[in-house]
Amino acid sequence: MDCRSTEKRRWIIEKYNVTPMAHIQLLAGQIKHSDAGKIIKNDYYIFEATNKSNDAKEIIQCGMGAARDFLKILNHEGLPIFNPLHGVLSVGLKK
Predict the structure, then answer these.
(1) What are phi and psi of 45, to 5 degrees?
(2) What's the burial of 3, exposed, middle or buried (CB within 10 Å: 0-12/13-18/19+)?
(3) How many Å is the Cα radius of gyration of the chain?
(4) Is 3 helix (H, G, I), strand (E, B) or coil?
(5) What is the model's pLDDT at position 92?
């Protein structure tokens, strides 16, 4: 979903219930395309947008500039960052 400007983000929030779902750290060398039109190289947010008129769901993937703007408009403090390299590996381990 195109979210390139503050005006567009405000319009989205008027038409959709927007919920931050994840704040994710990319691994070294990874890139993502932002719905705000840029390339993401570090960390990014995923938001779920539910249409207020028909409950259709969409996903918004954006870098931190657009994400901070969404969070400010939503009056949301933000989510902790998920770093896939800082987890505890416990699957399949036996003592």
Answers:
(1) -115, 150
(2) buried
(3) 15
(4) coil
(5) 53
The pLDDT value given to residue 87 = 58
Contacts of 11 (CB under 8 A, 6+ apart): none
Only one residue has tokens 């416990």, namely 90
- DSSP β-ladder status, 43-51 and 39-40: unpaired
Mean pLDDT for back-to-back runs of 10 residues, the chain (95 residues): 96 98 93 96 97 98 97 96 68 50
Q: For residues 54 and 38, what is the distance between their CA atoms, to the nearest angstrom? A: 29
Which residues does 94 contact at the CB level (< 8 Å), separation at least 6? none
- Could you give the 3-state DSSP secondary structure of residue 59? strand
Query: Which helix (H) or strand (E) is 42 found in, with range?
Result: none
The whole-number pLDDT of residue 85 equals: 74
Q: Please name the residue ranges forming H helices in the chain.
A: 6-15, 64-74
